[in-house]
Amino acid sequence: MDESANFAFQFEPALIEEIETFGELRSFKDGDIIMDYGKYIRMMPLVVKGTLKVLKKDDNGNEILLYYLSSSETCSMAYSCCLEEKRAKLKPSLKGTFRS
């Protein structure tokens, strides 16, 4: 994967190899929702190119911006939900390409 260079500074070669073997490269359009509230998270997004906007609902149901992720970053909240098999309490939308 040519995108491996984006992650070489933060991941060990063995982990990059595993991501290349088991990961799936997906492309999205501006505003596409890659996860949604209440759904189980079955993947861990790694941003290859573009920007991931991560939102969460407050107690009144209003969406609030938590943070933006860009190239070579991943979503810590998605990681937590994925490991603990919890339903999403966030809604990331994406610009660009990522590897899940």
Keywords:
100 residues, alpha+beta, 4-stranded antiparallel β-sheet, 2 helices, 4 strands, 19% helix, 37% strand
Summarize the structure.
The chain is of the alpha+beta class.
What does this structure look like?
With 100 residues, this protein is of the alpha+beta class. Helices cover 19% and strands 37% of the residues. The protein has helices at 13-22, 76-84; strands at 25-33, 46-57, 63-69, 91-99. The protein has a four-stranded antiparallel sheet with strand order 1-4-2-3, with no helix packed on it. The longest helix has 10 residues, at 13-22. The relative contact order is 0.29. Mean pLDDT is 78; it is low at 95-100.
Question: Would you spell out the secondary-structure blueprint of this structure?
Answer:
Elements: H1 13-22, E1 25-33, E2 46-57, E3 63-69, H2 76-84, E4 91-99
Q: Roughly how many Å apart are the termini?
A: 13 Å
As a percent range, the share of strand residues is 35-45%
Instruction: Provide the helix percentage.
Output: 10-25%
The number of helical runs is 2
The arrangement of helices and strands along the chain is: HEEEHE
Q: Give the total of beta strands.
A: 4
Compute the gyration radius: what is it?
A: 14 Å
Low-confidence stretches: 95-100
- Kindly report the average pLDDT value: 78
